[in-house]
Amino acid sequence: MEDRLQMDDGLVPQKIVSVHLQDSTLKEFKDQASNKQGQILPPNPESSLEIKPERDIMEHIGKEAPKVPGEELKQRRGSASGSEPAGDSDRGGGPAEHYHLHLSSCHECLELENSTIESVKFASAENIPDLPYDYNSSLESVTDEIGPKIEGRRVNITGKAPNILLYVGPDSQEAFGRLQQVRSVLADCVDTDSYVLYHLLEESALRDPWLDNCLLLVVASTESIPEDLYQKFMAYLSQGGKVLCLSSSFTFGGFRVTSKVVLQETVQRLVFSKADQSEVKLSVLSSGFVYQEGPGEQLSLGRLQGHLENEDKDRMIVQVPFGTHGGEAVLCQVHLELPPSSVTVQTPEDFNLLKSSNFRRYEVLKEILTTLGLSCHMNQAPALTPLYLLSAAEEIWDPLMQWLGKHVDPEGVIKSSKLSLKFVSSYTCEIEITPSSIPVITDTETFSSENFNLEIYRQNLQTKILGKIILFAEVTPTTMNLLDGLMFEMPQEMGLIAIAVRQTQGRGRGRNAWLSPVGSAISTLLVSIPLRSSLGQRIPFVQHLMSLAVVEAVRSIPEYQDINLRVKWPNDIYYSDLMKIGGVLVNSTLMGETFYILIGCGFNVTNSNPTICINDLITEYNKQHKVDLKPLRADYLIARVVTMLEKLIDTFQDKGPNGILPLYYKYWVHSGQQVRLGSTEGPKVSIVGLDDSGFLQVHQEGGEVVTVHPDGNSFDMLRNLIVPKQQ
């Protein structure tokens, strides 16, 4: 009944919990409800049961909760399943009665409707007031006008269950593969705490009353739709339903699907018009079919349209309204459901084109889903979690505890200008976690995390100092602040590193945000550099060393040397010269004769969407070279990166820039590259390399080699370059 109940003042329940009541309590509630029946609003006698599903509510005693039509793909996180058995007690002999509410979407309820059903009077359909719903307007307009909004998200008060049903054709292995692809891409677009994705099987689609409890029907079947099922889909549209067709033969309203073999499974350029009439251009994988209007048809179309950027301007996406109750469909003949890593994508060139457009693919999908009435708002920021104090070397644990004992205040706190760390042996829910006050758990015998394996990290960390003491969090504001209160006080040989699975306030250069989804390797490492050392005199090289360490950490693994990771000046990790896969942020403080340097680093390891990750590159490499390289883990790579960085620093301190530049140039993306100075109209120059301080050197045609700096205002650090003022 979630999203159907409304309490006083428009409040909407966030969780429904079933409880067991004693006999006496149940009878008391029944008596109270019977006395109040006359106070409840009467139903509208003109309303039909078929189009008012919220009024068809029955209670069955001693039964299990119903199953929604089809196979459930994904449980809603944080909610009870509602299908636990009632236990050993029954109505006659147990101390408690078990009541389960069934809704009109339950096939079992419909089958039992004509059998003996004992209804509880105060929960019967006759006494449930109508919820407002206007079938002459779209879902979006209803919720915008009368629907309360919670935390920026529209609340569904249409009476429909929050179900997205996926029809992929007759049951087969091929259909199952399509199901997984469609489910995956939709789960990345909509908040799965607000919607549930179900597989709509063909027999269930014909038999079960799903029409009244479906917010969106997704049709992704490549086979023709049987006539009886086609009529079901059209009936759903006629009562105001929303349909998204993905490379399907399903169509209506005067459109027909026509084969165009020359386009089949090829990468094409699509021009997509959004609802506000702005355009998005992207590379897409064509199905080989196009939409054409029937002869003499004058069609009324919605604003969402998509055509290929070719001579025929083949129509690939159309928004088609249907009926008088707000029904509509978006029909699509490009594979928005397929990732660039799909086996359908054959060549590296096509993979590159599709990956470069992957973010815009999601932009188009979200525009379509939003137009069809769904919310594609980002999930709320996850709750902050406590830190764990971990050690990668047993021999430094006791000295660490002794040091902490001397430096925490009487309440176990170490404060800095950024935040306070409260060291505790264990965590209880009474301890508050805020961005400025975070508990640190020191008793870590029971530590475990799905996303960080301490033993894998230990085995792959081969350093003398760096990365030995770990502050780990599942969710934290930003790792750059976690070491602030420890970096100047803790002995340098303890090697601090902060590692997080997710950040809620990640930072990039300047005012840029740093996205930190699950699947990226996120860390901040403390490095101490003597001022009067080779690197201490050339601190800008630190960011280059860290970028190089990430690339070398992957490409130095046996058999992974050809995974096309590269460095881009000054602080980026790239896939080839096409797409950013990670970045580095360096903050340095000089105290006395020592630089204390915090190196923040984040790079995508397993998070394929919405851009690209290292495991994408491995998958594509396997496909092209018929090999089976294993995917990599974030904890494994963080340990290798720290190990590689310590080696690069030692080499730089011993040999200076010339000790690392050959390796840096081997992996950088700028060989022979040309850029413009000052602005897009400035003189064109060729990139030569790095100067002795780590800044970029360029050569003007017929001129000399000069050092240039970024202007500090561009997201792309190479977009605008300026020549430093001559001394």
What does this structure look like?
With 727 residues, the chain is of the alpha+beta class. The chain has three domains: 163-372, Rossmann fold, CATH 3.40.50.880; 387-666, Bira Bifunctional Protein, Domain 2 (BirA Bifunctional Protein, domain 2), CATH 3.30.930.10; 673-724, no CATH class. The protein contains 15 helices and 34 strands. The protein has an eleven-stranded mixed β-sheet with strand order 20-21-22-19-23-24-25-29-28-27-26. The protein has a ten-stranded mixed β-sheet with strand order 3-9-8-10-11-18-17-16-13-14. Strands 30-31-32-33-34 form a five-stranded antiparallel β-sheet, with no helix packed on it. A hairpin with a 3-residue loop joins strand 26 and strand 27 (572-575). The protein is globular, with a radius of gyration of 31 Å.
